[in-house]
């Protein structure tokens, strides 16, 4: 049986690796991102994939991309993955509104535009799965990543509530919370504990998506650590993170 998947942010990193992994498992793919040349090259290397240049900050463009993908692949999507994302540091003492808007528009609204474009057909067919690539950084507000953390916890909340509503209608929703993965987004990071390579992350995600998991989190030590942070009393969390926050702020001031 044909399995069709649409994935945003497929031009690099986790999205690209996931496209390769899903293709190797027999999925037909619609690949979305802004860098059309990279998408076209990737699509050319996969058995059945269409490259669709699309900016996920544009709701109409996302809708058009979904309709084009369905037309070119010959049917509606069984799996939609909102993976496109932007992550840059953000500090309260030098707040950058334009960076913040960019993260909110791509990470949160970009996901919702895809959701809006694919969910009605999934409900009608009583089948399908919507997945969003959030992050372990969404489990608690992390100093130096306030906006990124906020967008990822917004994704988690949205996906969690949607999962509960859509399950009785036959539609699955999956929250994907990666820890550190080696991609263009993280290449400037200095320390990345328990770092995974993108193909390993893609294999892990793909097998659990196929199994219908509601939540996919990795690597286990980081998942346990960040989940543990959620239950720390506020005073203790503040005391533990203030040293880390000061180090990040000092480093940022030095760069200016
Ligand atoms: N790497 C990690 O450690 C890590 C950890 C947790 C979560 N994540 C999440 O994983 C997802 C993938 O990130 P990555 O690490 O693979 O980074 P990446 O290599 O920088 O990939 C980001 C992808 O998002 C796409 N994108 C960005 N803005 C877009 C826009 N306006 N419209 C359409 N596509 C857009 C980029 O494509 P174009 O530039 O071609 O548009 C690119 O394909 C993100 O949601 C990220 O937050 C990553």
Question: What's the topology here?
Answer:
Blueprint: E1 3-8, H1 13-24, E2 27-33, H2 36-45, E3 49-53, H3 59-73, E4 79-82, H4 97-125, E5 129-133, H5 146-166, E6 172-178, E7 181-182, E8 196-197, H6 198-210, E9 215-218, H7 220-231, H8 234-255
Short description:
It contains 8 helices and 9 strands. With 256 residues, it is of the alpha/beta class.
Low-pLDDT regions: none
Ligand inventory reads: NADP nicotinamide-adenine-dinucleotide phosphate
Give the spatial strand order of the biggest sheet. Answer: 3-2-1-4-5-6-9
Mean pLDDT: 95
The number of helical runs is 8
Class per helix and strand makeup: alpha/beta
Shape type: globular
What's the structural domain tally? 1
Report strand %: 15-25%
Terminal-residue CA separation: 56 Å
CATH H level, superfamily name: NAD(P)-binding Rossmann-like Domain
Structure notes:
With about 260 residues, the chain is of the alpha/beta class. It has one domain: NAD(P)-binding Rossmann-like Domain (Rossmann fold). It has 8 helices and 9 strands. The protein has helices spanning about 15-25, 35-45, 60-75, 95-125, 145-165, 200-210, 220-230, 235-255; strands at about 5-10, 25-35, 50-55, 80, 130-135, 170-180, 180, 195, 215-220. The protein has a 7-stranded parallel β-sheet with strand order 3-2-1-4-5-6-9, sandwiched between helices. A two-stranded parallel ribbon has the order 7-8. Strand 5 (about 130-135), helix 5 (about 145-165) and strand 6 form a beta-alpha-beta unit. Helix 1 packs across helix 6 (about 200-210) and helix 3 (about 60-75) packs across helix 4 (about 95-125). It is globular and about 55 Å long. The model has no long low-confidence stretch (mean pLDDT about 95). NADP nicotinamide-adenine-dinucleotide phosphate (NAP) binds near residues 12, 133 and 183. NADP nicotinamide-adenine-dinucleotide phosphate binds near residues 11, 15, 83, 183 and 184.
């Amino acid at each position: 049986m044909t399995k069709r998947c649409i994935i945003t942010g497929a031009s690099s990193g986790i999205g690209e690796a996931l496209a390769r992994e899903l293709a190797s498992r027999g999925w037909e793919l619609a690949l979305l991102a802004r860098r059309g040349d990279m998408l076209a090259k990737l699509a050319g290397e996969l058995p059945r994939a269409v490259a669709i240049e699309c900016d996920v900050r544009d709701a109409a463009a996302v809708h058009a991309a979904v309709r084009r993908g369905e037309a070119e692949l010959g049917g509606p999507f069984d799996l939609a993955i909102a993976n496109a994302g932007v992550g840059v540091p953000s500090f309260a003492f030098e707040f950058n509104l334009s960076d913040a808007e960019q993260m909110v528009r791509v990470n949160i609204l970009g996901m919702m535009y895809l959701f809006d474009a694919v969910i009605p057909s999934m409900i009608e067919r009583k089948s399908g799965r919507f997945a969003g690539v959030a992050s372990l950084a969404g489990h608690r507000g992390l100093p130096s990543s306030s906006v990124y953390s906020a967008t990822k916890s917004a994704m988690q909340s949205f996906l969690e509530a949607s999962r509960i509503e859509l399950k009785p209608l036959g539609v699955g929703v999956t929250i994907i919370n990666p820890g550190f993965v080696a991609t263009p987004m993280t290449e400037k990071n200095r320390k990345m504990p328990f770092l995974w390579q993108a193909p390993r992350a893609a294999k892990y995600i793909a097998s659990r998506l196929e199994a219908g998991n509601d939540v996919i989190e990795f690597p286990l030590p980081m998942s346990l650590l960040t989940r543990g942070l959620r239950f720390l009393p506020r005073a203790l969390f503040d005391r533990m993170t203030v040293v880390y926050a000061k180090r990040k702020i000092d480093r940022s001031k030095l760069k200016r």
